[in-house]
Design brief:
- The protein has 155 residues and is mainly beta.
- The chain folds into 2 domains: 58 residues, Roll (2,3-Dihydroxybiphenyl 1,2-Dioxygenase, domain 1), CATH 3.10.180; 97 residues, 2,3-Dihydroxybiphenyl 1,2-Dioxygenase, domain 1 (Roll), CATH 3.10.180.
- Helices cover 14% and strands 40% of the residues.
- It has 2 helices and 11 strands; from the N terminus they run βαββββαββββββ.
- The strands form 3 sheets. A 4-stranded mixed β-sheet has the order 1-4-3-2. A 4-stranded mixed β-sheet has the order 5-8-7-6, with no helix packed on it.
- It is globular.
- InterPro entries: Glyas_Bleomycin-R_OHBP_Dase, Glyoxalase_6.
- It comes from Sulfitobacter dubius.
- Pfam families: Glyoxalase_6.
């Protein structure tokens, strides 16, 4: 299987309110409205985030790697979003995160990985959807010196 695009979607009970909240979090209005029940942002090449008008479905977890956790938390707080202080992730030398929820209970994780001199290192977050509770299967991959490290994230 060759994957060409990744779609991260959350289900909204209040479509307009969720769209506004996520626009504030992302820092801009949606890039497109492909259908009346969907607002969509391009987060990175081939990665799209969607708010769906789908009140019957349950909550989702979204994890986003960002360059500056402190700067983003400051920006979000100025926009009146409640975001906790960054926390060091136990067992990692360089991973920090801030975990919170959107107004409908979807989990949002902001991640920053820095090396010993403070520069940002690549990190990937993925879920194993084949498992019954995919949130328990989240892992972070990053480089620590010359070795690749994979660690589960417990939500």
């Amino acid at each position: 299987m060759k994957v060409t695009d990744i779609f991260l979607s959350i289900n909204a009970r209040d479509f307009e309110a969720q769209t506004a909240w996520w626009a504030t979090l992302i820092g801009r209005d949606p890039d497109r409205n492909p259908m009346p029940s969907c607002q969509e942002w391009d987060l990175a090449p081939s990665v799209r985030f969607q708010v769906l008008d789908s009140p019957a479905n349950g909550p989702t977890t979204i994890s986003l790697r960002i360059d500056s956790l402190v700067a983003e938390i400051g920006r979000l707080r100025k926009a009146d979003l409640e975001v906790p202080d960054p926390q060091k992730v136990e067992g990692f030398k360089t991973l920090h995160w801030s975990a919170f929820t959107d107004p409908e209970g979807n989990k949002v994780n902001l991640l920053e990985v820095s090396d010993r001199d403070g520069s940002i290192q690549p990190v990937e977050v993925w879920f194993e959807p084949s498992l019954p509770n995919f949130c328990d299967a989240a892992k972070v991959c990053y480089h620590d010196g010359d070795k690749n490290v994979q660690q589960p994230i417990v939500f």
